Amino acid sequence: MPLHLNSHMDARRLNRRRFVFFSAIFALTSLATWFMADLLWRGGISVLEGTLLGLFVILFTHIATGFCTAVAGFYVINRGGDSARITATLAPGEEPPLASTAIVMPACNEDVSRVFEGLRVVFRSLQETKKLEHFDFFILSDSNQPNQWIQEEVAWLELCKQVGGFGKIFYRKRRQSINKKAGNVADFLRRWGRRYRYMIVLDADSIMTGRALVQLVALMEKNPQVGIIQTAPRIVNGETLFVRLQAFASRLYSPLFLAGLNYWQQHEGNFWGHNAVVRVQPFIDHCSLPELPGREPFGGRILSHDFVEAALMRKAGWAVWLAGDIEGSYEEGPPTLIDSAKRDRRWCQGNMQHAWLLTTRGFRPASRFHLLMGVMGYLSSPLWLLFMILSTIHVFSLAASPAADGLIQPDDTTPLFGYSLRVPEALTLFAFTMVLIFLPKLVSVVVTLGRREEVERFGGKRRLVTSALLEMFVSALLAPVNMAFNSKFVLFTLLGQGVSWVTQRRDGDDGTDWREAIITHGGQTAFGLVWGVSALVVSPAFFWWLSPVLAGLVLSIPLSIFLSKAGVGRAAKTLGIFLTPEETHPPYELRRLRQNLAECYRHLAPFEPLRADYGLLQAVLDPYVNALHVALLRQRRPSEEAREWFIQLRERLLRDGPGKFTTKEKMALLLDAESMIWLHRELWSGPAEALAEWWRLAMRQYNVLTAAPTTALYR
Fold it and tell me: Quick check: 419 pLDDT over 70?
C-alpha cells in the first residue's frame, strides 16, 4: 500500500530514526576524540593542543555525519528500499489528474543553441507523454550582452514556429537584472505566478524527461501538504576528464547518500534551486527572501537562496521532500577545476551568509541543520588548513626542544596530525579516520557489483573497479587543492570582498592553458613547496605523513591542465574509464540533444569583422529580426532629456559604427523601440556615404550571413 503523507511519517518513528542517526555521529566523534585527547594529554595539554583538540572535534563531526548518512543509505538499500519516500505515495500505474504548471528556465549570457535545443528536447518529451496541455514554458532572460539578447529572441521565435509553441513557450527579458536568478524567478511569480499551481525550475543546462516532469506534478497533486519536491539531477554530457570524473563519482556514490538523507530528513528536506517542483502559492506567500543586515558579503541580498526558501517553506508548515529515485533528471557540470572553483566562490559567499540565519526564530531544527551543513561545507576547509598548520607548528616546536615533551621516544614514535605519538595508537586513529572517509565509496562499489545489469551500464566489473580506484586516487589529490581554494574564498568573504555574478562556462574544448593554471594555482604550488621543504628539513617522518596533502598542492598546475582537456576525457571514455549509465545507455532525450547540437554547431559563423556586434547588426539591419525585437519590447515613454540623448546616440551609431560604443549604450538603444525603428528605416533608406564603413560591410555580407539558419549562427 502506498504511504499517505498528508500527516507525514509518524512522529515517534521519525524521532527514532533521527535519534539513531545523530547518536551514531556522537558516538563516532566521541570515540575519535577520546583517542586524540588520550594522545594529547600524556604530557599535559597546552593552549595550542587544546585549540587543536577543539578543531579536531568539529572536523571529525563533519566526517562522521557523511559516514553515518552513507551507512543509513546502505541500511535502506540493503533492505529493499525505504517505504517512507515521496515516490511511494503513487501506486504503480496511478495517474492523478494534473494541474497547470510553469516550467521556468532563467538564463544569463548562456550558449543560446544549448538553451533552446535543451528546451526543444524537454518540450518534445512532454509532448510524447500526451500531457503537454498542462505545461507552459518560460525563458527568463537576464542576459546583458546585445548578441545574446538578440540571438535568444530569434531562437525563441524559430523554436515556437518549429514545434508549434506559440502560446506555450514564452520569452521574457528583464530591463533590470535585480537580485540575479532569485530576483528573476520572483519577478516572474509576481507577474504570472497566480496563473499556475506549480512551478518547475530548470537551470540553463538542465534536462528533464517528460515522464519525470509528469511524475513530479502527479506527486504534488497526490500530496497536497507538500510544498517542494527536489530531484537528484545526474551530471551528463561531459567531455573533459574533470567533469567525467565528477559525473562518475556522483552516479556511483550518490544513491547511498541520497537514501541516507531521505532516511533521517523525510519531509524536512532541502531545495537545490533547480530540477525541482514548487507549489506556487505558498512559495509566493512565505518564501520572500529577507534582506540581511549590513553590507555584502555577509549582509545584503542572499546569494544562495534555495536553502533559505526550503527553510521558509518548512517554517510555514509545508513539507519539502527529496525524491532521489526519480529517473530522468539531468544537468551539466563545470568542465574544469578552475571553472568549478569559480562556481564555488559564489556558493561560498552565499552559504557563509547562512550563518546569520542559524538562530532565526521559527526555523525547524532540520532546517537549521541543513543551513549549518551548508556553512560547514566551506568553513571546514580553512579549519582543516588551520588544524594542519598548527600541527606543523607543534611538530617544529617539539623538534626544536625534544626534551620538553615526554612524548618523544625515538624507538616507537611517529607523527600523526602534527604530534609525535606511539605508533599503534597513532595508526589506530589514522585508520579509523580513513575508514570513515573511504568506506562509503567502497560500499557503493560493492553494492553496484551485486547488480549485474547495473554493472554492465558502468562498463563491466573490471572497468567499474578500475574507475573507482582511479577516482579515489584523483579525488585525494584534488582534496587539498579544493581545501586551498575554499580557504581563500572564506578568507576573502570574512575580509568583506564580495563576488560578481559571472556566466558559468559549459564546454571545455580548449581546456585550461598554462598561463591560467599558473596564475590560479601558483600560490598553492609555492605554499606546498615551502611547507614540504620545511617539514622535510625539520622532521622527515612528519613530511611523509603530510605528503598526500603536499602532493595535491605541488601538482595542482599540471593536474588542473590534464583534467581540463577534452581530448584526454574522450580517450578515457574510449578506454572505458569513468563510464556512466547515461553514456553507455543514454536515454532518448540525451541522444536527441546531442544530435540537435551537433547539427547546430556545423553552421557558418558570422563574418569575422562583424562577429562582435552581430546581434546589434541583426536587430537593426534584418527586417524580420527588427520587427520581432520591437514587438517584444515593452513601450516606455522617456523624458525629453532622455529622448534627446537617444537621438544623438542613434545618429552616432550609423555615422561611426558600433565599435566605439559601450555595452551599456548598445543595450540602451536595444531597449528603446523608437530608436530601433528609426535605425532600421534610416539604414535602408539613407545614402550609403552617410553610413560608417562597418554598416556598408554589414549590408554587403547580409545575404551571405542570412543563408544559414539564424538560430545556429552562434555557438
Answer: no
Residue 445, all three cell numbers: 562499489
* Predicted pLDDT of residue 418: 42
What was the pLDDT predicted at 692?
Answer: 92
- The C-alpha atoms of residue 175 and residue 169 are separated, in whole angstroms, by 20
HSE (side-chain half, CA atoms, 13 Å) at 375? 16
186-190: list long-range contacts, CB under 8 Å, 24+ apart.
186/288, 186/289, 187/140, 188/102, 188/104, 188/138, 188/140, 189/280, 189/283, 189/284, 190/284
What does the pLDDT average to over 209-218?
97
Cβ pair 382, 19 in contact under 8 A: no
Which domain, by its residues, includes 178? 96-377
Please, are residues 105 and 294 in contact by the beta-carbon 8 Å criterion?
no
Of the residues 343, 377, 411, the one at which a domain ends: 377
Radius of gyration of the chain (CA): 28
Query: What pLDDT does residue 713 have?
Result: 38
**Does position 69 have pLDDT exceeding 80, yes or no?**
yes
Q: Is the pLDDT of residue 434 over 60?
A: yes
d(CA 448, CA 425): 34
List of long-range contacts for 483-488, beta carbons under 8 Å, 24+ apart: 483/381, 483/384, 483/385, 484/381, 484/385, 484/523, 484/524, 484/527, 484/553, 484/556, 485/341, 485/344, 485/345, 485/381, 486/344, 486/348, 486/378, 486/381, 486/382, 487/381, 487/382, 487/385
This model's pTM is above 0.85: yes
The arithmetic mean of pLDDT across residues 265-280, rounded, is 96
Pick from 377, 411, 440: which residue ends a domain?
Answer: 377
Cα separation values, 294 from 300, 356, 362, 499, Å = 6, 11, 22, 16
Does 391 fall in a domain? no
Cβ atoms within 10 A of the Cβ of 145, count? Answer: 15
Q: Is residue 531 part of a domain?
A: no
Measured CA to CA, the distance from residue 137 to residue 122 in angstroms comes to: 10
- Is residue 151 a part of any domain in this protein? yes
Q: Residue 221 belongs to what H/E stretch?
A: helix 210-222
Q: What is the 3-state secondary structure (H, E, C) of 616-662?
A: HHHHHHCHHHHHHHHHHCCCCCCCHHHHHHHHHHHHHHHHHCHHHCC
CATH of the domain at 207: 3.90.550.10
425 occurs within a structural domain: no
Lowest mean pLDDT among 4-18, 157-171, 326-340: 4-18
Domain count along the chain: 2
> Grid coordinates representing 444?
557503493
Instruction: Check residue 291 and give its pLDDT.
Output: 82
Segment 682-713, tens digit of pLDDT: 999 988 888 999 998 888 877 555 554 444 43
Q: Is the pLDDT of residue 597 over 50?
A: yes
User: Hey, is 49 helix, strand or coil?
Assistant: helix
Residue (of 250, 354, 254) closest to 304 by Cα position = 354
Span of 165-169, 245-249, 473-477, 596-600 with lowest mean pLDDT? 596-600
